[in-house]
Amino acid sequence: MLFFEKDKPVIPPVQPNVGLDMVLKHMIQYVEKTARRGSIKLFRTQSPRHFEGGDWDQGGSCQRLQPLLPEQVEELFSVQNNGTNVEARLVNQHLYKALKGSDFQILDITHMSEFRADAHPSTAGGKKHNDCMHWCLPGITDTWNDLFVTLLNNVKVRT
Predict the structure, then answer these.
(1) b/e 109-143 (16+ beta carbons within 10 angstroms → b)
(2) What are the tens digits of pLDDT across the range 65-91?
(3) Could you tell me which residue ranges the Trichome birefringence-like C-terminal domain spans (predicted)?
(4) What is the domain range of residue 80?
């Protein structure tokens, strides 16, 4: 993977995790330098995928009908098991490290959403398709919104 710094390629090429740290560092510095004073800076973590048996284009599916138990979440998503959504957890580790000491607020939806493998529309509409990246069923996205509003209220109180 090739990364650029000051319009020039970083040579020799760096590992993706090193490049991600560089990108996050520069992004945070840029936003903090250019954002209006007193503005709220927020980073929301990514929503997890729940494909099992392959990725979306390789026969994987999201057929769970119940929320996952804690041990199922760890089995499917843990870094040690190289689970389904391991990249989200790895990126979150880099994100937390990069945002430490910054003015950014973090809305972490990843872990709580890992439990809700049942909350995707998937084949519920009668169509044969895999839709693990959309959250169209009530509940989980409502909770994200509640957390977002709470975060905003807490930030407002502190300023």
Answers:
(1) bbeebbbbbbbbebeeeeeeebbbeebeeeebbee
(2) 888 899 988 888 888 877 767 888 889
(3) 5-150
(4) 40-158
